[in-house]
Structure to design on (180 residues):
């Protein structure tokens, strides 16, 4: 089991869109997703953001779009992002081995994408407190399945501090301020 390596990771943000956020109605999830987006921007980490049928579900929430406007945004209709040829290609282009994934809904799009990433040989890290489903039961069952399949389940703070590794990191103070 490995820890997150800042130089070998890619963030994959799944469907944190206007209408889906309203359906899960969980401010903590949104707040944590925004903290992660800010961290990604500060550390300049590669990020792919998916949007499930944005015509019907809206775009990625504004707070995330404002933080990481230069991320690769990709529309999808498949539940597993890896079933979209363009997303699979974008992930391969980065040559990263660790994929940090979070979003909505945990038991559908996050789960199916993470399973496919594991099948492809990636190390998968799922941020529990930045992922949600409409029901807690579905969310919890998905996280259990993911853990049994080999994904590592983490919290927002675990991800942030694993990326930093030390208080000597050049961006430590700026990133740490996000937690307070």
């Amino acid at each position: 089991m490995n820890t997150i390596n800042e130089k070998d990771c890619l963030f994959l943000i799944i469907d944190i869109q206007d209408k889906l956020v309203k359906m899960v109605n969980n401010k903590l999830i949104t707040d944590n997703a925004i903290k992660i987006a800010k961290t990604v921007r500060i550390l300049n980490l590669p990020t792919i953001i998916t949007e499930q049928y944005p015509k019907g579900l809206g775009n990625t929430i504004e707070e995330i779009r404002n933080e990481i406007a230069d991320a690769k945004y990709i529309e999808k209709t498949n539940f597993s992002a890896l079933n979209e040829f363009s997303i699979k290609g974008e992930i391969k282009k980065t040559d990263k081995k660790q994929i940090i994934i979070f979003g909505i809904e945990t038991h559908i799009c996050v789960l199916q994408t993470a399973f496919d990433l594991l099948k492809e040989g990636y190390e998968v890290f799922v941020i529990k407190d930045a992922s949600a489903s409409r029901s807690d039961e579905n969310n919890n069952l998905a996280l259990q399945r993911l853990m049994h399949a080999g994904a590592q389940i983490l919290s927002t703070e675990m991800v942030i501090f694993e990326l930093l590794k030390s208080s000597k990191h050049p961006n430590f103070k700026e990133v740490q301020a996000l937690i307070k």
In short: The radius of gyration is 15 Å. Strands lie at 9-14, 47-52, 72-76, 98-103, 123-127, 152-154. The chain has a mean pLDDT of 95.
